[in-house]
């Protein structure tokens, strides 16, 4: 039972990181109907910026995270601004554009920081504690708590603010939102900025539990993408549930199947998607009719 509970806590911790990435994917997709394939690259950039300001500049970890969120939100705005002229012309070109931005971000990371990567020490509560015979890393609980706060903030933004209501309107009906005077371009830019900030939050929080390297865009980005699909692409609650489930599957597969863990994880994922291709909560995206 102790091993089971420790695995659950570890799975929830990684699941929280995947949920942040999945929410970033989903906020852009539900608003614009676009899969942002540069998202994994932004996760990686966020991890590098947070680790640099934490280790090299010696800022407190939380302040280094704030810097990473601001910088990556600006990157999201740049990506949306470059792609905006294509929105009413060719969505497929926008999709290809996000792939191109992902490649550029990875190249820039290697150019600036190199390809070797870095280890980031646990910034708070570095030593495990034993509770009822269960060894727990307090930082895992910090990750879960931060993700819960981010999810609550996202819910509040979408449900209780004018900007969030405008974004919801754009997601429901692009043409109708335009007709009533909502600035669709600004909503799209905001979606990209929020998505990028969530990606940076995931990358920065993952730094102390994973090795920060250019491979991080694939390691976290792909699993966050799969979590978004699992929960229902474009569905924010689905992204959270998908991330948690994917993290738990990942954790138990690593414990039971070890070297074959990734094979088992994606096999289970494939079976779930075949049974319910629209995701657990169903897909949500913008209507361009």
Describe the structure.
The chain has helices at residues 2-32, 39-55, 61-83, 91-113, 138-160, 162-172, 174-179, 184-206, 216-231, 236-257, 261-275; strands spanning 129-131, 134-136. The protein is an all-alpha fold. The protein has one domain (2-275): Orthogonal Bundle (ABC transporter involved in vitamin B12 uptake, BtuC). It has a two-stranded antiparallel sheet.
N/C terminus separation? 53 Å
Strand proportion: under 5%
CATH architecture descriptor name: Orthogonal Bundle
Shape: globular
Number of helices: 11
Task: Note poorly predicted spans.
Answer: none
* SSE class: mainly alpha
Order of helices and strands: HHHHEEHHHHHHH
Count every beta strand, where a strand is a DSSP E run of 2 or more residues.
2
Total discrete domains: 1
**Please, what is the oligomeric state?**
single chain
Kindly report the spatial arrangement of strands forming the biggest sheet.
Answer: 1-2
Helix content: over 70%
Rg, nearest Å: 19 Å
Largest sheet: 2 strands, antiparallel
Summarize the structure.
The chain is an all-alpha fold and 289 residues long. It contains 11 helices and 2 strands; from the N terminus they run H-H-H-H-E-E-H-H-H-H-H-H-H.
Salient structural properties:
2% strand, 289 residues, ABC transporter involved in vitamin B12 uptake, BtuC, mainly alpha, 73% helix
């Amino acid at each position: 039972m102790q091993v089971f509970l420790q695995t659950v806590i570890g799975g929830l911790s990684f699941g929280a990181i995947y949920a942040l990435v999945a929410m970033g994917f989903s906020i852009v997709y539900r608003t614009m109907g676009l899969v942002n394939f540069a998202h994994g690259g932004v996760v990686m950039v966020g991890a590098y910026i947070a680790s640099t300001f934490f280790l090299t500049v010696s800022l407190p970890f939380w302040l280094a995270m704030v810097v990473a969120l601001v910088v990556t939100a600006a990157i999201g705005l740049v990506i949306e601004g470059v792609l905006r002229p294509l929105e009413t012309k060719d969505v497929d070109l926008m999709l290809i554009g996000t792939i191109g931005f992902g490649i550029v971000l990875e190249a820039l990371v290697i150019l600036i920081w190199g390809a070797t990567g870095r280890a980031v020490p646990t910034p708070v509560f570095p030593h495990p504690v034993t509770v009822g015979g269960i060894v727990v890393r307090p930082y895992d609980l910090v990750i879960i708590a931060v993700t819960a706060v981010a999810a609550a903030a996202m819910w509040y933004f979408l449900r209780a603010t004018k900007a969030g209501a405008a974004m919801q309107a754009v997601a429901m009906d692009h043409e109708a939102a335009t007709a009533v005077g909502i600035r669709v371009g600004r909503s799209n830019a905001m979606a990209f900025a929020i998505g990028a900030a969530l990606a940076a939050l995931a990358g920065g929080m993952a730094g102390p539990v994973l090795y920060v390297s250019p491979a991080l865009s694939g390691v976290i980005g792909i699993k966050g993408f799969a979590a978004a699909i699992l929960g229902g692409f474009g569905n924010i609650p689905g992204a959270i549930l998908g991330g948690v489930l994917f993290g738990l599957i990942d954790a138990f597969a690593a414990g039971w199947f070890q070297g074959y863990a990734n094979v088992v994880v994606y096999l289970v994922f494939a079976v779930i998607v075949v049974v319910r291709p629209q995701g657990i909560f169903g897909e949500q995206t913008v209507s361009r009719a």
